[in-house]
Write a structure and sequence with these properties.
This protein is α+β, with helices and mostly antiparallel strands. It has a single domain, classed as Structural Genomics Hypothetical 15.5 Kd Protein In mrcA-pckA Intergenic Region, Chain A, CATH 3.10.290. It has 3 helices and 5 strands, in the order H-H-E-E-E-E-H-E. It has a 5-stranded antiparallel sheet, with no helix packed on it. Strand 1 and strand 2 form a beta hairpin. Helix 1 packs across helix 2. The termini are far apart. The model has no long low-confidence stretch (mean pLDDT about 90). One of its GO terms (biological process) is rescue of stalled ribosome.
Length: about 90
């Protein structure tokens, strides 16, 4: 599954176009490698996403083409969530 689609379906990022923009800015890594929106993700991959003031690290547990709001959180496990200093904006 494409990275941008996973981020949207899992509701880590609300819109696919926004997921693409974040990936194109180099703010997402898959298993330590900088990822593009078109990168493929698979079960077990570790994503690190930088959102403005925080960095979230998640592990992909399940891939689904679509999900309900209640099911979306079951697609990944949050491994780490940390605040980032504001000087890199």
């Amino acid at each position: 599954m494409r990275l941008d689609k996973f981020l949207k379906v899992s509701r880590l990022i609300k819109r696919r176009t926004l997921a693409k923009e974040v990936a194109d800015k180099g703010r997402i890594t898959i298993n330590g490698q900088i990822a593009k929106a078109s990168s493929n993700v698979k079960t077990g991959d570790e994503l690190e996403i930088r959102f403005g003031q925080k960095t979230v690290t998640v592990q992909i547990d399940v891939l689904q083409e679509s999900s309900r709001k209640e099911e979306a959180a079951n697609m990944y496990t949050v491994l780490k969530e940390e605040k980032v200093a504001g000087d890199d904006l």
